[in-house]
Specification:
Number of helices: 2
Strand content: 5-15%
Structural class: mainly alpha
Number of strands: 2
Oligomer: single chain
Helix content: over 70%
Distance between the termini: 48 Å
Radius of gyration: 20 Å
Strand order of the largest sheet: 1-2
Length: 80
């Protein structure tokens, strides 16, 4: 029961943080008038958001793969 309540609290806090981040992101992003219309992104804005999100995901994946290679090399050094 305590685990379920803890999970609910963590999930609600995560949702709150995502919503807060998204609102603040849109406020800053929509200062550029040609990517937004009446406070929400238009088609060009959504393309930019998707491209930047994909770019961030690719960079995180590349860093993760580099970290895995470094860990494997370090383990190989210690096994010798």
């Amino acid at each position: 029961m305590v685990v379920v309540l803890g999970a609910i609290v963590i999930l609600s806090a995560a949702i709150y943080l995502v919503v807060t981040f998204w609102d603040s992101f849109l406020n800053g992003f929509c200062k550029v008038s040609f990517v937004c219309w009446q406070g929400s992104p238009n088609w060009l804005g959504w393309i930019l958001v998707a491209f930047l999100g994909l770019l961030i995901l690719v960079l995180c994946f590349m860093l993760w793969m580099k970290w895995l290679v470094l860990v494997a090399e370090e383990e190989a050094i210690w096994r010798e």
